Structure formats: C-alpha cells, structure tokens
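[Automated response] Your request has been received and processed.

Submitted sequence:
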Amino acid sequence: NNNNNSQTGAPKISRIVHNGTDVLAPGDALEVIVYGDTGARASFEILGQTSEQNLPEVSAGRYQTRYVIPSGLTVEKGVLLAHLVKNGRETAQESDRQVTVRANGNSNNNNNNWTTYPQSNDNISVSRPQFTVNFPESVQQNTVRLYVDGVDFSRQARMNGNQLVWTPQYDLPNGQHKAQARATAASGRTLEYQWNFNVNTSNNNNNGSFAIQELRPTNNQVSNSARPQIGAIFNQNINANSVTLVVDNINVTNQQGAQKYSNGIMWTPQYDLQNGSHKATVTALDANNRQVTQTWNFQVNGNNNNNNNNNNTSGQTLNITNISNGINLPAVFNVQGSAQPGRQVTALIEYTPNNLLQVLTGQTQQITKTAVANGNGHFDIPVDASAISPNQSFRLTVSDGGASPTQVFTVRRQ
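Generated structure:
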C-alpha cells in the first residue's frame, strides 16, 4: 500500500484487489477492484507494460473492470498501479500483489476465438492487405479500435456485425508489422488482441499472370472458429460481377456476411459450421476475361470449447453445465449449457437491495440476458452482476421459451 501521491485534497485509495494470484496467460481475465473515494475517475495499468485501463464505478466507492490479457503480453512480477482522479487531483497507488503473465501460464484459455487477416506471424506478399478482425463476442461498436504500427486507423475501419474491416490507403513497407484490436464487449469486459505479421512483396512474382494469392482458410487448414472467414484474394483486380463463392455446395456470393472487394471475395458465416471437413470453390475473371477457378478443403474444430459432455443435441432439453445451487459467482460470469439448436435461452437474475432473497418481497431488481443456441446446441450467456453486493444471495432462472423445464438456482455473489 504505497501511496505515491500525498498532495492535500487528493482522493483516497483504501484498497486494491485483483485475481492475479497465479501466473496468467493471454486470454485470461484479470479482475481488478479499487476501493476509494466516490465520484472519481479510476484506472489501472501494469507499469511499463499496458496502457491505462478504465475502472468504472460500479457502486459507491467501488471501481471494477475485467481486463483480458492480450496476445503477446509477457510480464514478470509487474507492478499493478491504480489511479484515482477527482477535482483535478490524482492519487496513484501500487497493489501489494504483483502480476506475472507468461505465454503458457497456468491457463486453459487461449486466443482461438479471435480470427484475423493477416493472421499472427503471417508472411504476406501484398502491400495493401484487406485487414479483418473477428471479435470473439458482441462488442459496443463505438468502442472498437484498430492500431497498425502504433497508428490509430479506427475511423477508417468499418464494422460488419462483430467483424472489423480495414484496407490501408498506402503501401505497407516490407518487414514486420504490429497490429492491435481493442473493444468493449456488450458484457462490459475489455477485449484486446495483439499480433505481428510480415510483408514481403518480393514473393509476389507472377509475371502478369492472373492467380489466387491467398485462400482463407488455407487448403487443409484446421480452423478453431466455428465461423471462419472463407474466400480468396487474387493477385490483381477482378471483375466484381464475375466472382462466385460456393461453400459446401451452397452459393454464398450474395448471402449475408459476404463482402466483395476489388481483388477478392470473403464470406463470414452467420451461423456455426459443423465440426469436420468443408469444401469451397471460388471463380473469378480479371479485366482481360482470364478465368481462375480454385477448389479447396478445410476443417472446422470450433465447437469443442464448451464444457458440455452431451454430444447428442437432437431434441436436446435445456441443460446448464457450469452452475449449481449454492455456488459463489464473480461479478461477471457466464451461463453455459445446451439446448435445442436455434433456441433462444434467457437468463433472469433477481435480487433485492436488502438481501432478503428468502422472501423476495418488496422491490425486486432484475437483470435479463439472452443468447441463441448454436448449431450444436451450445449456448454461452455473459452476465454482468456487479450491481449485486458482494456476499449477497440472488436467484438465477434459465429458460428456453417453454420447450424444456425452467432451471432455477440460488447462488451467491462473491
């Protein structure tokens, strides 16, 4: 508890808490809570390693956020420094507990739910690649940021659902480049991903021939996303009216999620592809009416990230896999399980300000969140319950619109 700011009238920080007790890894969530004077602007940073991260005031004098460790961040016994600013005066204080982040950590989490182009450590032969970033969950679109080599290109990027798209207006020089994507999820947690890629235009020696420069996914690639970006980039501009993309014998050229570019076409499925082998075929003409047709195969292994051991989802009834009666839940948690594919699942949280869950009389506060079960019947509902006081009991009701019996749990906020 080293108070690094003793100026008169500065806001007081009484306590700093975070969950980095073990070695963390990219993809892990670092939960940070700062207690202090009310009505201040709060943030934290890992000194010399991260930028300042905002800490919203979730209740009087309690500032809290969930920071997802980005790819590429490594920290050995880093100092977590909290800031509190009020009336133009600032207090900065170190946490008693240091933070360590290593590539392999102690975590089972990873960044497989992020898909980008260029991919991490990609070697590409074009100087103006079409950047795409698929965020792993719903984001607040006005919070999306894209940095390439430290320059903010967020205003030039466009969003298509949870996918960010940006094309450079200048040639990227040969060599290594660094990209970073960041956004605030609909659940309120911070999403951040960093990666490097290489540009080497000397590999693009095609002597004027018309050819495919890149396939996504690449031939025989195994995708960890159930909704991978599928398509082709050509080595020169194409006739946009001539291009067609067929996936698993379905023409998706004009389907929702398809994007045509001056030198290619990409499609992001609006539903989860089944695990296993898939086939795609792309055809296009260049300005001289030369035709290229390419068929390739890829694998999807993106539906194995749930803790659901019931693989028979046909006619599946509602099943909650990660919550049971009486457990303690953090301020931000997920409700996971299985239901009939395509079925909307609702999580209803009920609590009372006076903590009398047993009677639930008087004014009852509610939080409602929904999600749709994917093609394998899995669902994942993020819930922000930071409005509920620590150690307070509350009721969680999960339903699927009457298709199955409602699941009711009495749980406690950590």
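Summary generated for your ticket: Confidence is low (pLDDT under 50) at residues 1-6, 106-110, 304-314, 355-362. The first strand starts at residue 13 and ends at 18.
If you did not submit this request, please reply to this message.
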